[in-house]
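Duplicate of #3305? Posting structure anyway:
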């Protein structure tokens, strides 16, 4: 009689889950991959608002697949590799191509040098996302789960996508606006490969009690998101991206203030 694969026991008699591919978390990962692919297609078709929204849809699916895998105890090596490849498409290539399609054609009107600068910034972002994911995968076993080393690629993608979404219906952005967009994209890429520590919020206890005033922030956030979605998302993820450098600067200032304090004979 063939042994039930769901009840295989190890040498100590403990039940173990066989290795395999589980459909539910990988279905969600496929949803994130499809959203990233759609963002690229929408950008090629010059539908930049749809492209920006698609990146955020990919973020929703990407945030769900890992949690579903943990809740259902269906984590697998295959799922981790598939999720990483999906992240590269959705949060590495898609934002870079969306920015390229939206900005490079416009900045090229100011000369070939600006055009080269534009596509180099887009490539820098894509390469930074690849390096960020490779570093994360190689250190996942030893890294502190409370913090991310470098800006997470979904957060960097959110900044770029929100910026393009915000400017998708503006045709008179001009050279200063285009330069600002490319500077923001380059900074998002640089923060991904930086050594700054970003809070992962994994230590937050969702079952803990909170103040009533904190609860009021939730409907306010939803109202702002409904009225000005790209502006709200840009401020939220932009603030998160600036949080780690700001903390680092504050700590450096305090450290210098202690070091330059009065000395006693």
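Output from current build:
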């Amino acid at each position: 009689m063939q042994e039930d694969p769901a009840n295989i026991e190890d040498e100590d008699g403990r039940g173990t889950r066989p290795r395999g591919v589980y459909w539910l978390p990988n279905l969600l990962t496929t949803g994130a991959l499809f959203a990233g692919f759609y963002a690229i297609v929408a950008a090629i078709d010059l539908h930049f608002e749809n492209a920006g929204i698609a990146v955020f849809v990919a973020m929703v699916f990407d945030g769900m697949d890992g949690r579903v895998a943990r809740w259902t105890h269906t984590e697998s090596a295959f799922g981790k590799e598939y999720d990483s490849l999906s992240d590269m498409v959705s949060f590495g290539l898609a934002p870079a191509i969306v920015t390229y399609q939206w900005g490079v054609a416009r900045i090229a009107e100011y000369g070939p040098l600006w055009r080269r600068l534009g596509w180099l910034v887009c490539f820098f972002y894509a390469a930074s996302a690849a390096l960020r994911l490779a570093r994360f995968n190689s250190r996942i076993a030893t890294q502190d789960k409370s913090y991310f080393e470098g800006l997470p690629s979904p957060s960097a993608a959110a900044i770029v996508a929100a910026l393009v979404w915000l400017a998708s219906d503006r045709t008179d952005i001009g050279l200063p606006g285009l330069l600002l967009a490319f500077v923001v994209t380059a900074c998002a890429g640089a923060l991904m490969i930086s050594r700054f520590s970003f809070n992962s919020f994994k230590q937050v206890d969702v079952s803990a009690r909170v103040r009533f005033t904190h609860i009021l922030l939730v409907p306010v956030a939803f109202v702002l998101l409904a009225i000005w979605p790209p502006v709200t998302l840009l401020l939220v993820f932009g603030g998160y991206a600036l949080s780690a450098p700001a903390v680092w600067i504050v700590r450096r200032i305090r450290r210098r203030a202690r070091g330059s304090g009065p000395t006693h004979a």
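Confirmed duplicate; merging threads. The CA atoms of residues 42 and 252 lie 44 Å apart. Residues 77-107 form the longest helix (31 residues).
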